[in-house]
Amino acid sequence: MRDFIFFNPVKVYFGKKCMKYFGNEAKKHGKKALLVYGKGSIKKNGAYHDIVNSLEKAEIEFVEFSGVRPNPVLSHTKEGIELAKKEKVDFIIAAGGGSVIDESKAIAAGAVVDFDVWNFYTGEKTPEKALPLITVLTLPATASEMNMGSVITNEENGLKLSTGAEVLYPKASFLNPNYTMTLPEEQIVYGTVDAISHIVEPYFNHTAEYNILSLNVADGVLKSLKENCENILNEPNNYNFRANHMWSVTVAFNGLIRTGLGRSEFPNHAIEHAISGLFPDVAHGAGLAVVMPAWMRFVKEEKEELLKRFGQNLFKLENHKPDHTIEAFKNWLKSIGAPVSLGEIGIKENDIEKIAEKAYEVMQFWAMDTDKYSKENIEKILTFAL
Amino acid sequence: MRDFIFFNPVKVYFGKKCMKYFGNEAKKHGKKALLVYGKGSIKKNGAYHDIVNSLEKAEIEFVEFSGVRPNPVLSHTKEGIELAKKEKVDFIIAAGGGSVIDESKAIAAGAVVDFDVWNFYTGEKTPEKALPLITVLTLPATASEMNMGSVITNEENGLKLSTGAEVLYPKASFLNPNYTMTLPEEQIVYGTVDAISHIVEPYFNHTAEYNILSLNVADGVLKSLKENCENILNEPNNYNFRANHMWSVTVAFNGLIRTGLGRSEFPNHAIEHAISGLFPDVAHGAGLAVVMPAWMRFVKEEKEELLKRFGQNLFKLENHKPDHTIEAFKNWLKSIGAPVSLGEIGIKENDIEKIAEKAYEVMQFWAMDTDKYSKENIEKILTFAL
């Protein structure tokens, strides 16, 4: 059990009626907001309507900034920062999924400094202040609505990097499961895979010797993610499944499971960031579904006991070997419609080398063990994913 | 899945070196503190020494207020409020277990109003402001260090009531597992039982139709509590067991498990509050160990599925009936040294009537279903505990 500091001051308003609190919450943070969103799905799922109504009632002025892409990019982020500065907004409202929230965090931090926001992602600077941020979540996946992380891709060099700081915690997040009812099936699948990956990394890569609490809680959240995802695919209109799934995805990565586990490396994320940094059309969850089983094969001897535990907990395997867990996991990913090979996400064998190079670069930024994860070994993992 | 608002802004500093942050954290809240503690065990376990050293280094003045009793009482609370007002302290430091923290919350809320603090406990008033509170936990049991609840006993009428409000969240809590190394075995046992009871109430008494996340997480925390308690009793000097236990007890009742479960009644607590309100020498955990199996017997038909789940999760029972779960739970409580009958905590058959009356009164304050929990039925439960 390692020492830790746990602090998560995000106020979560959850449920079908949560938006009734939006106006009052927004008022706490100022009189003028920047409303950030993506390609406009929030105009179909009801979120835009509810936000605008609430802001008007609360007499809060707002400026819209749309067009955030999945795997949000630095150039668009910078446009948002310029707009926030020009319009002198008091706070930011992010309405969408993890990409919108991550870019909004970057805008919130970038709007109060005079230097390039990318410095926060390379680690040269740390965010020390930021505009207040409120999120309205419409796509459960990254848990950015309840953590202090943000991931941005720099299109100039294909680097997808992250930053984190207490000032980037949203002040409040609104989670209305009804906004997720119109999501395409694949978004539920990729969101689930993303949430599972957020547990997989600390589950397998933690450094603490003993922490049964975190592993037991992780087992419980993993089971919820699997069962709720299956339930939603079978019965897409069931509110309870959507709601329980939405909250499970958030809890998977709000910091609780990682408490006391010590430092955990994020190798699956490093490799996936290389993939979607170079191939921006690959969804983060799709990339992770391809990488995780391959990575598990790479570590199957070192992580034998945990792989067996993972298989027993999620797939009720008994008297099994790590290979059985990996096989069951891959089969389950296929069964929900996730890709499990590079080919399925449009990546060819001769792309492996450049992905490995980029992943190696990400791992260096993350101060990971690059002896274990040498370029050759990353290529080996990627080859397992062919 | 029910709508909810989740907000828990307590900053938790956890681990053997956590006190190095104490001085800086304290400075944020003012220049003069009231240091509240009990009978002085903090002078033996090292907490007092570390606090005083940190305060001196941080040049923070402090006034001591000791003598908080287990099951803290209103009269002593009022003395603390008077002292806090007279000395014009900026903030409160609670050093001890749940009793010290609960009384400190009452002092924090009472020091900023001119009326009787008991009004917060009867529900006539709600705390709207309070002095900032920092806690240094030395006895894991109530999770008061990471929630907004407080329980106080009014000795004049034997009523043990609770209050809760966002302003009662500690600003920061320091959890150093080394302070728990010198605890008597029975304190570990009672603390474990208390933590289990905090999960048992929402686990069995929730009103949401569907919430697999909360039940799965609850299962995981319950297993951690059981295993860590057993481990500590077998190997009292093992830091990892103490540490993982300490954090498990906090997580059991920091609000997370209850999210989305809807309203849960707390019948075991209502009955126990009557017991320790009338018999203040009964430890809260001891009372709960006696009440819980008896209460389970009372609801064994209504709660059949959940009782089977509880038995499977904690005691690996298979193809079992609720009675087997109750028997296994009772046997396990005995095995760790907890009492399981009223006689063992010094209560006689002819005390049952007055306990039932008092419990019924508590249940009325808590707006519980007093048809289900009529005086006769409470007597029935207590009779099961003979």
From TrEMBL, chains A, B:
Gene3D superfamilies on file: 3.40.50.1970, Dehydroquinate synthase-like - alpha domain
Single GO MF annotation: butanol dehydrogenase (NAD+) activity
One cellular component (GO) term of this entry: cytosol
Residue ranges of every copy of the Alcohol dehydrogenase iron-type/glycerol dehydrogenase GldA domain listed in the record: 9-177
InterPro entries to which the protein is assigned, alphabetical: ADH_Fe/GldA, ADH_Fe_C, BDH-like
Any one Pfam family match given in the protein's UniProt record, by short name: Fe-ADH
The UniProt record lists the keyword Secreted: no
Fe-containing alcohol dehydrogenase-like C-terminal domain boundaries: 189-383
Keywords: Oxidoreductase
Keyword Oxidoreductase: yes
Family stated for the protein in its record: Belongs to the iron-containing alcohol dehydrogenase family.
Protein name (Swiss-Prot/TrEMBL): Iron-containing alcohol dehydrogenase
Organism whose genome encodes this protein: Thermotomaculum hydrothermale
